[in-house]
Design goal:
The complex is a heterodimer of chains A (291) and B (575). Chain A has 291 residues and is of the alpha/beta class. Chain A is built from nine helices and 13 strands. Chain A has a nine-stranded mixed beta sheet, sandwiched between helices. Classes of the chains: A alpha/beta (291), B alpha+beta (575).
C-alpha cells in the first residue's frame, strides 16, 4: 500500500506538575508557571509516537505539530522535529489568550481546516487541566469521527483506520473513516528518543518572534535561517469569528479555587466493640463518605 | 526521568577546557561541512552546544532505559543456541534505543553517516553508558572498531562497512586465542589468500571475544606461512553475512554478564585485508588497543561514578546508633576518598582524551593536505603525550574503579553483600577492568619506558610551570616536592639491570600517576572551586602514598630480590 498520510499532532506545552514543590501554587490558588519547568505534555508525546509510527509504515507521510501558546511554546515544534516530525505551526496571538477548552478547540480546528490533514492525533489529556475535552471538541467542531483512549493504531482495513482503545476492562478495536481525530492514552508506547542529527539541525529552528529577541543563532547564514523558520499563525491567518476566540469564546468561569490540604492521617485501629463501630459510622456520615 | 549527563556537572565542565577550541577546530577542519550538510555546525559555540545537547539525549537513555535494564540483563544474560548469540531482552532494547537516537557512529565523519564528534564527547558517552551498565558499555564501545577501519582501510572497505555503524550494526575485535592472550605474537588463526576471487579465508579458533557474534568483525590472523612472530600477522575485516564463523560457546563470567564473551570457530570464513599485510599486530592492533584502553579508562570512571553514588545514597539512608552512618568519620573518610579518586581518574581520562583528539585530527587532515612543519611537530608532540598517558590512565582508572567499588560495598555493610543493591553488580563488573585490554601489569610495562626516558618528568615540569592562584600555592608546593622525590626515585633505577627496574616499575609509574592527577585536580580547582575538597584530599593522600613507595625503594637493597625470587621454586603441594 502506498498511502501518503498527512498527520497533525496536537501538542501542548504544560507546566511539569509531576514533581511539584512548595512553590507550585500562587497565593490565589492558580498554577505558578514560573516555578515549574515547561514540558511537552506526556500523553501528547505518546500521540507523537503513534504519528511517527504511521510515517514509518507509510513512507512519504508527513507529521506536523500544532500547538497553541505563547512564543516559548515554539519549543514544542522543535521537540517534534528532534523526534522525527516534518514541521509544525505555532498558534500564537494575543486574541487567543485566556482561552478555555472550547475556545482552544475552536482555534485548533480553524488551523486544522487550513492544514487539511488525514488524521489528527492528540494526547488524551494535558497534565495541567486534566479535562480531556480538547481532542473531542476539535472532532465535533470539524465534524470528524473521534476515537478516544487509543493505545495502538494498528493499520488500515481498506480505507478505514484500525485503532485499539484502552478501556477500563479491556481493549476495544474500532475502525474509523478518515479524516478522524484520535486521542492517545498513556499506556500507548513511549515516544522514541530525540535523534542526534535532527537535534543538531533543528535546534536552530526559530519563529520570527524568537529571531527578533534572540541573538542565539545570529551566526547562521540568512538562507539557513529562513529554511528553519517555524510558522506562527494568528487569528488573521486562520480566519473565523473573533468572538469564539480567547476570553470571549470561553464560557468556563472559575467560581472559586480552594486550597486543599491532604491530611494524611496514620491508620486508626478500631476494635469490634459497639462503641468503635458506632463512632466510625458517625464519622463516615459526617464526612459524607456514606449516606 | 533520570539523566546521567545532566545530574553530573563534572561532565559538562570538560567542554569548558581551554584546549576544546583547538580540538573542535581541527575536528571540524574549520567547519568545512557547514552549509553542505544540514546538521554540521558552523562555529565552535554551535559545536559545543551540540555536544552538550547530544550528551543530554544519551544521558536520558542511560538514566531511563539502560540503567533500569541493568539488573535484569545481569541476571538473564545473553543466550547461546545453534552457534549464534541472542542478547538479553534489555540489551537489545538498549541497542535499539541508542540506534533510534542516531548515536552510533558518534566519532565517524559525516560522509559515513557519523556525527563527526571529537574524542572528548565520544569518551564521555562511554563513561556515561558504563555508569548505567558497565557490561553494555562494551557493546557500545566496540564501535571503536570503526575507527580502525576509518583510519587504515581502503575507501572501498570504508564505504562498505562504516555507514552500517550508524544503522546499529555491532562490532567485535577478534584478537585473543587460547594460546595468545597477553602475548598476541602467538596468534595462530590462519588466513589464506584465494588468488581466484581475491578474498582471504580464515581458519582457526578465537577465545574470549567480547560480542563475538557481531555483524562486523576485525580479526587478527597469520597471513604469512612459516612465521611465528608478530610480523607474520595481518588484519582482516569479516562480514557476518559472508558466513563461516560460529559461536562454539559463551563464557559464564563473574561480571559484565550482559556482554557476551564468545569462543569462535572460523571455518573458511571469507575476509578482506585491512591495510597492509604483516602490519596487523605491529601497527593496527596497537592503534586499536590504544583506543580500547582509553575506552576501558572511560568504563572504569563510569563504574567509579556508579559506585560513588550508591555509597553516598546508602550512607545517608542507613542509620545506626541513632544517626545516618555518613556522620561517622570512618564512613565519611571513605566516601570522600572515593570521590577524590573518582575525580582524579576523570581528570586523567579527559586529559588523555584531549591529547588523543589533537593528534588523531591531524592524522585525518594529513590525508587531505600536507601538514605544515609546525603542525607536524605539534601532531607528534600530542601523539607522544597520548601514548604516554594511555597506559597510565588504563592502569589508574581501572584500579581506582575496583578500590571504589570495594569501599562502596563496604559502606553498604551486610546489605552490600546481598543481591538487593546495585553495588554487588558494580563490584563484580569492576573486576575485569584491570584485566582486559592489557592487565595492569602490562600497562606498567607500557608506561615504564616513559619513566626511564624522562617523558613523564618533562610533562610534570610542564604542569609545574603553570601559575596558580595564591590560595593554591601551598598545595602546589606539596606537588612540587613530590615531583622532586619522584625524580630521585627514578635516579635510583637508572643504570640498574632490567629485572630490578621491572620489579620496581609499578611503584614509580604509580608515583608519576599520583603527581599527574594531583596537578590535574589542582588545575580543575583553579577553574571551579567545587574541586577544592577533592584536590586537597587527593594531593595529601598522594603525598603519603608516594612517601611509602619512595621509602620502600630507598631502603631496598638488590639482594632483597632473592627472597622474592625464591617463590619461583615453590609448587602447589598435593597430599
Amino acid at each position: 500500500m502506498t498511502k501518503k498520510l498527512k498527520i497533525v499532532v496536537l501538542a501542548k506545552q504544560v507546566p511539569d506538575t509531576r514533581n511539584v514543590g512548595k512553590n507550585a501554587m500562587k497565593e490565589d490558588g492558580t498554577v505558578n508557571r514560573a516555578a515549574l519547568p515547561a514540558i511537552f505534555n506526556p500523553e501528547d508525546m505518546n500521540a507523537l509516537e503513534q504519528a511517527l509510527r504511521l510515517k514509518d509504515r507509510f513512507p512519504g507521510s508527513q507529521v506536523l505539530l500544532l500547538t497553541m501558546g505563547p512564543s516559548r511554546a515554539a519549543e514544542i515544534i522543535r521537540e517534534g522535529y528532534y523526534r522525527g516530525a516534518d514541521g509544525g505551526v505555532l498558534l500564537t496571538d494575543r486574541k487567543f489568550a485566556g482561552a478555555d477548552t472550547l475556545a482552544t478547540s475552536y482555534a485548533l480546528s480553524m488551523a486544522i481546516k487550513k492544514i487539511g490533514p488525514d488524521i489528527i492525533i492528540a494526547g488524551r489529556q494535558a497534565i495541567d487541566g486534566d479535562t480531556a475535552q480538547v481532542g473531542p471538541q476539535v472532532a465535533e467542531k470539524l465534524n470528524y469521527p473521534q476515537v478516544t483512549y487509543a493505545e495502538d493504531i494498528t493499520g488500515f482495513d481498506g480505507d478505514k483506520l484500525v485503532v485499539k482503545r484502552r478501556l477500563e476492562r479491556g481493549v476495544e478495536t474500532v475502525k474509523t473513516p478518515l479524516p478522524a481525530v484520535i486521542t492517545v492514552h498513556a499506556t500507548a508506547p513511549d515516544c522514541r528518543p530525540r535523534h542526534a542529527k535532527h537535534l543538531m539541525k533543528y535546534k536552530h529552528a526559530r519563529t520570527f518572534t524568537e529571531e527578533q529577541d534572540n541573538e542565539h543563532n545570529s551566526y547562521l547564514p540568512i538562507e539557513a535561517k529562513t529554511n528553519l523558520r517555524i510558522p506562527e499563525w494568528g487569528v488573521a491567518d486562520v480566519g473565523g469569528d473573533e468572538i469564539h476566540y480567547g476570553l470571549s469564546g470561553s464560557p468556563t468561569k472559575v467560581k472559586k479555587i480552594e486550597n486543599i490540604v491532604h491530611q494524611a492521617k496514620e491508620s486508626k485501629i478500631l476494635t469490634s466493640s459497639f462503641e468503635d463501630i458506632d463512632s466510625l459510622i458517625k464519622e463516615l456520615f459526617s464526612s459524607h463518605t456514606i449516606g | 526521568m533520570a539523566n546521567f549527563y545532566k545530574d553530573n556537572n563534572d561532565l559538562k565542565f570538560q567542554f569548558s577546557h581551554p584546549l576544546m577550541s583547538k580540538i573542535v577546530r581541527l575536528k571540524e577542519q574549520d567547519f568545512k561541512d557547514s552549509g553542505n550538510i544540514d546538521y554540521a555546525p558552523s562555529s565552535f559555540e554551535d559545536t559545543v552546544d551540540s555536544y552538550d545537547k547530544v550528551m543530554e539525549i544519551l544521558g536520558e537513555i542511560c538514566g531511563d532505559v539502560i540503567f533500569p535494564n541493568s539488573e535484569e540483563v545481569d541476571h538473564s544474560g545473553p543466550h547461546h543456541e545453534n552457534g549464534r548469540v541472542t542478547y538479553a531482552k534489555g540489551t537489545q532494547q538498549n541497542q535499539d534505543t541508542l540506534t533510534q537516537a542516531g548515536l552510533y557512529g558518534m566519532s565517524l565523519p559525516r560522509e559515513f553517516g557519523g556525527l563527526n564528534f571529537s574524542m572528548v564527547p565520544y569518551v564521555m558517552a562511554a563513561e556515561i553508558v558504563a555508569r548505567a551498565d558497565a557490561g553494555f558499555a562494551n557493546i557500545w564501545g566496540l564501535q571503536d572498531c570503526a575507527e580502525t577501519i576509518h583510519e587504515f582501510a581502503t575507501e572501498e572497505i570504508k564505504e562498505e562497512f562504516l555507514p552500517r555503524i550508524h544503522q546499529g550494526e555491532t562490532c567485535s575485535m577478534d584478537l585473543t586465542e587460547p594460546d595468545a592472550g597477553s602475548d598476541l605474537q602467538a596468534v595462530m588463526l590462519k588466513a589464506t589468500l584465494n588468488e581466484q576471487d581475491g578474498m582471504w579465508y580464515l581458519n582457526g579458533v578465537k577465545r574470549f571475544i567480547t560480542n563475538g557474534d557481531a555483524q562486523i568483525k576485525l580479526v587478527l590472523a597469520r597471513s604469512e606461512e612459516n612465521t611465528t612472530d608478530g610480523r607474520g600477522l595481518s588484519y582482516f575485516v569479516h562480514d557476518q553475512k559472508w558466513g563461516g564463523v560460529t559461536v562454539r560457546r559463551i563464557e559464564n563470567k563473574l561480571g559484565i554478564k550482559g556482554s557476551p564473551t564468545c569462543e569462535l570457530v572460523f571455518s573458511n570464513a571469507p575476509a578482506k585485508l585491512v591495510g597492509e599485510r604483516r602490519m596487523g599486530l605491529i601497527k593496527y592492533v596497537m592503534s586499536l588497543m590504544n583506543g580500547a584502553r582509553l575506552g576501558v579508562g572511560a568504563q572504569s570512571v563510569g563504574i567509579s561514578e556508579a559506585a560513588y553514588r550508591e555509597a553516598l545514597k546508602y550512607a545517608h539512608e542507613r542509620a545506626q546508633f541513632g544517626k545516618p552512618i555518613i556522620q561517622f568519620p570512618a564512613v565519611y573518610e571513605m566516601l570522600a576518598v572515593i570521590k577524590a579518586k573518582l575525580q582524579a581518574s576523570r581528570a586523567l581520562l579527559y586529559e588523555t582524551t584531549r591529547f588523543v583528539d589533537v593528534y588523531k585530527s591531524y592524522g585525518f587532515i594529513a590525508e587531505t593536505r600536507k601538514l605544515t612543519p609546525e603542525e607536524r611537530t605539534e601532531s607528534k608532540q600530542y601523539q607522544k603525550l597520548a601514548d604516554m598517558f594511555t597506559p597510565m590512565l588504563k592502569l589508574m582508572a581501572s584500579e581506582y574503579s575496583n578500590q571504589n567499588a570495594y569501599d562502596s560495598l563496604q559502606i553498604h555493610g551486610g546489605s552490600g553483600f546481598m543481591k538487593d543493591y546495585p553495588i554487588e553488580r558494580i563490584y563484580r563488573d569492576a573486576r575485569i577492568t584491570t584485566i582486559y585490554e592489557g592487565t595492569s601489569q602490562l600497562q606498567v610495562v607500557a608506561a615504564q619506558r616513559y619513566v626511564t626516558n624522562g617523558g613523564y618528568m618533562s610533562q610534570l615540569r610542564e604542569y609545574e610551570n603553570r601559575p596558580v592562584k595564591a590560595e593554591y600555592e601551598q598545595l602546589k608546593k606539596i606537588i612540587a616536592e613530590m615531583t622532586n622525590q619522584y625524580e630521585k626515585a627514578v635516579e635510583m633505577l637508572i643504570g640498574k639491570d632490567n629485572e630490578y627496574i621491572d620489579f620496581h616499575a609499578r611503584r614509580v609509574v604509580e608515583m608519576a600517576a599520583h603527581i599527574t592527577m594531583s596537578y590535574l585536580l589542582l588545575n580543575d580547582a583553579q577553574i571551579d572551586s567545587s574541586f577544592d575538597n577533592s584536590a586537597q584530599i587527593y594531593i595529601t593522600k598522594a603525598q603519603s602514598w608516594n612517601d611509602e613507595r619512595f621509602n620502600y625503594l630507598k631502603n631496598f637493597s638488590p639482594c632483597q630480590l632473592s627472597a622474592f625470587q625464591a617463590i619461583k621454586e615453590e609448587h602447589v603441594k598435593e597430599a
